[in-house]
Amino acid sequence: MTAIDLSDFDVPGRGRGLLDVIQWRYLLKLIVRKGTATRYRNSVLGWTWSYVKPGVQFLVYFLVVGIVLGLNRGVENFPVYLFSGIVAVNLFNEAFGNATTSIVENSSLVRKIYLPRELFPIAAIIVALIHFVPQLAVLLLACLLVGWVPSLLGLAAILLGVLLVVSFALGVGMFFAGINVRYRDAQNFVEIIRMVSVWASPVLYTWTLVKDVAPSWFVHVYMSNPITLAVEMFHFGFWDPTASQTHGYPDQFLLHTLVAIGLCILSLVLGQLTFRRFERTFAQDL
């Protein structure tokens, strides 16, 4: 019997996970282009909605929390404080939601051809980043109007905040994207997380209010949340330079940052493992 050398052949339908994205980057560009092109298709306002929706959200929160509840009087430049937090949480919510539904929304491709399935949640994250840019532009304009002067440390904090949000959204997004193909209840659970995320981070209030009413162990857990850290990084980079007196930061803020980074890495690992586990039956489940 003639021996056949199979060393040059790959096992069908198996890849290297997130590492395959680099090799398939051209296809990733096409998926991203499709996501941005179809976002506001047949819409009269088009990309203007990227400004309108966060603007309305900010106005509602500012009127209710800032004016009615009076936090506007206790936080200097409260509009900048509020909008910088909203921008960070909106990035997470859109990236997380898009990544969760990315496989189901591209079911026709998943069923017909093989390609690294991780391309879809990563493309969803990139699309969320693209729609994050208009909100960031409005925030920058508002900061400049109240005398914002950027610093290298502040810009580094903003970049770290974006990285925390993106990596955490990708990790938990892949986790729920894999589960959502078989169990559509996962999408409803994700909607609950997105709804709570605004209140679970110091967006509409300061972290010191949590410190005043919660035990110290809860404050440590609260501040180690990657989204909470990202919001505080945005506050440090955008709001702090415009305020004469800030609300300060916990004594163990560096430790909280390291824990948040570790949680982001853990979410990426668990998300990838879970995604690969359910990936085997994507075509059948869809």
Automatic annotation (TrEMBL):
Residues 45-278 form the ABC transmembrane type-2 domain. Keywords: Cell inner membrane, Cell membrane, Membrane, Transmembrane, Transmembrane helix, Transport. It comes from the Bacteria. The chain crosses the membrane at residues 51-71, 119-149, 155-177, 253-275. It is a multi-pass membrane protein. The keyword Protein transport does not apply. It is found in: Cell inner membrane; Cell membrane. Belongs to the ABC-2 integral membrane protein family. This is Transport permease protein.
